[in-house]
Amino acid sequence: MSSFQIRTDLALEARESINESEKELRGVRVEEYYRKEEDIQVTKVIVESKNAAKTMGKPMGTYVTMEAPALVEPDEDYHREISECLAEELYKMLPGHEEEQSILVVGLGNREVTADALGPQVVDNLFITRHVVKLYGKAAYNCDRINQVSSIEPGVMAKTGMETAEIIKGVIRETAPDVVIVVDALAARSTKRLNRTIQITNTGIQPGSGVGNHRNALTQESLGVPVIAIGVPTVVDAATIVGDALEKLLQEDNEFDCVKYMGQHRHAFTELNNMYMTGKDIDAVIKRVSFTVSEGINIALEKGME
Amino acid sequence: MSSFQIRTDLALEARESINESEKELRGVRVEEYYRKEEDIQVTKVIVESKNAAKTMGKPMGTYVTMEAPALVEPDEDYHREISECLAEELYKMLPGHEEEQSILVVGLGNREVTADALGPQVVDNLFITRHVVKLYGKAAYNCDRINQVSSIEPGVMAKTGMETAEIIKGVIRETAPDVVIVVDALAARSTKRLNRTIQITNTGIQPGSGVGNHRNALTQESLGVPVIAIGVPTVVDAATIVGDALEKLLQEDNEFDCVKYMGQHRHAFTELNNMYMTGKDIDAVIKRVSFTVSEGINIALEKGME
Amino acid sequence: MSSFQIRTDLALEARESINESEKELRGVRVEEYYRKEEDIQVTKVIVESKNAAKTMGKPMGTYVTMEAPALVEPDEDYHREISECLAEELYKMLPGHEEEQSILVVGLGNREVTADALGPQVVDNLFITRHVVKLYGKAAYNCDRINQVSSIEPGVMAKTGMETAEIIKGVIRETAPDVVIVVDALAARSTKRLNRTIQITNTGIQPGSGVGNHRNALTQESLGVPVIAIGVPTVVDAATIVGDALEKLLQEDNEFDCVKYMGQHRHAFTELNNMYMTGKDIDAVIKRVSFTVSEGINIALEKGME
Amino acid sequence: MSSFQIRTDLALEARESINESEKELRGVRVEEYYRKEEDIQVTKVIVESKNAAKTMGKPMGTYVTMEAPALVEPDEDYHREISECLAEELYKMLPGHEEEQSILVVGLGNREVTADALGPQVVDNLFITRHVVKLYGKAAYNCDRINQVSSIEPGVMAKTGMETAEIIKGVIRETAPDVVIVVDALAARSTKRLNRTIQITNTGIQPGSGVGNHRNALTQESLGVPVIAIGVPTVVDAATIVGDALEKLLQEDNEFDCVKYMGQHRHAFTELNNMYMTGKDIDAVIKRVSFTVSEGINIALEKGME
User: Which domains does chain D have, with CATH numbers?
Assistant: First the structure.
């Protein structure tokens, strides 16, 4: 119906965009549960067939979405309860989590653009252990089992002249992690999900949307190791917002031909293409959300070790 | 006609928003000239009557707008030609410029929010002289005449707990500058003006729009000294963008009742209220534009001195 | 005996530098206690007479020093126990703490110089309430009593062209706080105190040492309101280090004339004058210590309110 | 004679530390010239034999040192003349410079520690072309010949958990540059060389000194491509300063046994081991020097292309 591409990084929203009649889509399994105490809605969308993947515009795999309205609010304890829920979901998705392993966390995005700084700020607060274990052994941490955690902030192509994937591939070849966790700021379709939602997926990262499009595929297929992606939507695509307003209009006014209208105003829409929309207090939000996410990763990577 | 408030900090755009028939508004004088070599269009809007001020939604005073398409582009020399044009216009507007004087430059905005960091980044690159002249005399600069330049980055209310105006008033009382220059990131109505336009006005800053709304009045009336404001539009208000799309629509479809539509969708529009829209490469743009503006101020404040 | 000026911001060290025989100095009262659980040694030095002040090189007043070796170490909880001890000592020293009051916290120092960034980083993490109470009343915090907390990072003279004291005086005149708390990075005499010690004093800040010397007097006398200074030594003065090495030498070698030696090598010592010494991991240390100090201030300013 | 290790990254200083009698060392060739107009002293030290390398404590290769006293001073034009001299010397040392090639510039060091931020700040200002040429061809730059320039800031081991060399090797394997240029902040022996000297060498980087010791070998041998290192001394090692003071003393006082003394005071010296000394205005200095160096690299990499 719509000539709009679905511009969202959230599987949850991709599914919502599908016509009601198709929602009981074959090949898509949905599980939901609500954590009352923490006020977190967890939705697991499992895309099981190629056909479903095509309809959704999302690759096959598992997408866990945590909707936590509190995430965007200030909190003395940086929402420890959300970190712990994230840790649980991440731990479940982490292949080989019962063994000690080596994990590389990649902070995607541009530290200099506030809404895109989630990845870099998350890796700032990780508990990094690989170099210590390599140099001094586990004794340095006074424990029998420990994961070797490393991290990298690859930067953006305009500054490095290299694709993010090139840098990550090189680092993986040289340091041979067992798993890669990629953290990135996402684009949502709806402003109401901004900074309130965490998505965890075992499909990695596909080229396409995101805040800065600093991406080619970062997937198990391209990198050769399992890739888990953690993302928080921090922006809404500007063209999407305008398009949505027009679609609402269309629903009320059957005379109005949305597609024709957009064709006639192509220039106005083109000019929106490299724009994004974000909140005015985005700096404080990103700082807090990053801390909650990094603590979630820290807890997950210490689970089962001691 | 429109139920939209004119959401622009640019006098130029405020004037464009007025119905054609009213453009020959009594009390508004417009002078334009084009600098061919530098490709800079300079427009001077002088609002001369209270009535005109009300219609325009802009206080009485002089607004010089430099439209310089090259401003947004990378340049080895940071667009020295634009700095020089800015210096000229600023110098003309600077009261008492033929005498040595003391000038306080205020960098408004939030350094941590990329699109709002223009003011802070401009003061980073200023040539500050006041303390040296006070401690060592003009001899330190080997010259007979020199302005005493000081600067402050007052920060944002969420971090200081104080209105910007309180901080500035205090500093003015204590250091008694002859003139204040305020630098701030602005909101434009049209994406095509983003980062391509510099506005210089002797009306100071009014509470209202801007990126972060970090403002109550910073005007000659409130501060007791002449206030010149220099601004560059770096964002577009999100509600404005959507509203504009709807208005275009209205022009084509006389059946469509824009005001009614917006009333019915109040929630969607409210949610846009604290959002703004900006470009994806805003970090690099702000860095470059800030440098061009700070050089313009530096040159202006050295003019006539030696 | 020594031709060295005592280069330390710590009253504790100033006192140690005094000859043994003079330690029972009239006009200096010392109280000590040890908090075993937290491993914090608290020493209170009260300089009660002008004479004692002159011998110590420190103004009359109370100096509380917390020696907390753990402060420099990483800790998941950012050493909450040290924050709480700091809060207790700060609260005791805070005049009028049983009433609601307005408190301005000043973060001295240069954010761009790692070892000097303590003050700016502390104010980044404060719980700022003044603007909210002014705009929405205490209801906004759902409480009956609350302090109005504001903060400012005045920056350094090379960037502002103004003395820190000018800016602070202006802000005080305009916003009329009841008390000022000043936070600054200090210089210690001994490397073993670096980043392990917190000094709290009701004498404010005197021009002189510190990392960046960004100071003229910030005292009750100069500002007109009580001033409490909180400092952590993050650097050692380079000339002090070299001088100390020479003095140790002197103690062992009676033939060696230290004063003469230094006279003969004046140039080498002069060149050290604008140098300081700090640790290689100073960035991580400052980040952690700042957080512990800001939490201490937050807790103190919430004590007795609810 | 001395029990001190020679703690300097400058070949020039290493050579000065050698006894006078040995200076006419076999296997070390020295060429000097003075550029009067720019006030730059250029010294080329060529270490030609293994024996000489051992005595110098520097690997075989060519070391060009530019002593430019103006480098540390503010300058409106960021010392373009020094950038041009650096470009010339770098260009001469660059293998294959007459052909188009692919060049990876590595910014070593810790952006968060001011004195160690030279490398990261230099790569911030480079003219990066590789991605544009790859995506759009040389046509994008309107030229026939152009080098493909990429850059990376690998970060420090405490944050990444990886050795710098691991990251660089991986990136080289994946992107196959023809030459690597490494930029780093160095440690000097003498405060008078701080921020006034640029060293260019084709020996790459050896593990050892530097500000943050973020290094294992980055050399042609370890990386498989030619490596040119550009460094500016921004700190003096603390132990070196104290040791130097003692040695001067020794020269005057033959009774004094420096080695014995240091043995007796081992603790005091150990405690200096992770300390460094730097100037109080290091932030402004690093910002300016970085710009001069990055311009030097930009000019060199555009030479001969068009």
Answer: 11-302 (3.40.50.1450)
